[in-house]
Design a protein that fits this description.
This protein is mainly α and 191 residues long. The chain has helices spanning 5-34, 45-87, 103-108, 119-122, 160-163, 178-184; strands at 90-94, 112-114, 134-138. The protein has six helices and three strands; from the N terminus they run ααβαβαβαα. It has a three-stranded antiparallel beta sheet with strand order 2-1-3, with helices on one face. The longest helix has 43 residues, at 45-87.
Length: 191
Amino acid sequence: VSQSRYGLLLNYKYNTQLFAAFKTHAMQTDLVKALFDKDGNIRSFYKFRIEAEHILNNYNINWMRTEYNFAKMSVQNSSRFMLYMSRGDMIRFKTQEDGRVRNDHRLLNNTTYPANHEFWTTHLPPLDWGCRCYIVPVDATETTPPQGVVDIKPGFDKNAALTGRIFPDNSEYFVLDSEAQKDALLYRDWE
């Protein structure tokens, strides 16, 4: 692993701050749009408040829970990965093995490779919003490949322990016009 735990923590903090700033901007943009009805007329405060409550509930309750869980799982799995990597462990990909597991993730269950295998650069959980998969060290000496081909969504196919980023760069919050995105992400790789 190329960076220290402290450097990784700094990168995680920066990434989450950037994510939060872009999320706040997106929420404010949606609130401004809610000032107007579909015909471009200004809504009454009462109708605006109804729209605003819906927007705020999505951003600050529904999506915040998903983003919190994603960040927590990313840091937990990254920490485990760094430990397993330092010990030279074999790592096994695990699902919750229940009815909520996605088919693609089910294909990865029990996949086993050494910590330094290229598989882990693109398949360290979580692999999507709401992913509950995790990794464990095992005493196995043989590898076990995935049970099928799995396409991970772009942005989620990164190892947070190696990239220093919890949230994917292509998150819907980060999608801006190219000039604004260039300016906003200019300093994202600092340490």
